[in-house]
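To assess whether the prediction recovers the assembly geometry, we first specified each molecular entity separately, as shown.
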Amino acid sequence: MTTIITVTSGKGGVGKTTTSASIASGLALRGFKTAVIDFDVGLRNLDLIMGCERRVVYDFVNVIQGDANLHQALIKDKHCDNLFVLPASQTRDKDALTEEGVEKVLKELEHQGFDYIVCDSPAGIEHGAVMALTFADEAIVVTNPEVSSVRDSDRILGIIQSKSRRAIEGREPVKEHLLVTRYSPKRAHEGEMLTYTDIQELLRIPLLGVIPESEAVLQASNQGIPAIHQKGTPVADAYQDAIARFLGEEHPLRFVEYEKPGLIKRLFGGK
Amino acid sequence: MSWLSLIFGEKKATASVAKERLQLIIAHERACASGPDFLPELQKDLVAVISKYFPVNPDDIKVGLEKQGNYEVLEVNIVLPEGR
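The predicted structure of the complete assembly is given in tokenized form:
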């Protein structure tokens, strides 16, 4: 059984690609054969975040149009044995993603025995984003504690509930998960930022995890290593927890409470 | 702002404002999105039928669905051209 997970948000810049890379890597580290697909045709970036940009020969659109087979286009990840990246085309138009074409590629991945397919959606609610969510079994909605992001997340949830295959065919609905990213416990504590419970109340979907705002994310993307590999950082731990919850394990939330720094920490620095 | 808050750089707690605004706008947008999406089609069909008998402007036919208590009221408003 293959499970298709769509990582989506509506709004741009909230951490979809960072999340796709880390969730896919985390699932692969758990031993699942995983593929991660970049649906952002024309603005590919997943390859950079995964650190495989120099190994791209063929892309998603090449496979859809029959110019290359899936085997040629899939790039094996450097860090995980059973993780493969399917990059987006940088030159084509987003209309190159046809519904039949996307379905054919997903079916073929299923044939090849993949356990999970992670679809990294482009921002917006247009064709590329709709293609990324059409075949979803589960959706991870990435949301920042910020008004425009929350509103756009609500919008994309409406689209999942109306345009996904599961919705159209009247099957069991897409399982939705909320992932709050760029969270600052301090600012939330001081009433300057929406809390994760505020966001969950507004969107009314189960919470998968809270990823704290962190310098580690930029450091990870600088190097092309998914953030989940930044051992010992709160971001990596928070993504590990999110994956554990995704797989049905129960883990309490971490990195969401603000602890006042002690006197020594205040005197001698540290963040 | 008092001189104290100038010195200590007090910040405003604006998250509650954000939450209230989002509650309103999300409720409003959900209500719109859950409405039927056949209204534009219905309007087009009505224009086609009526213009067989009257020369009407597509803008002169307005179709709306309103909720009044337990009822849903489909309102069709047609302005016929003058001078007939």
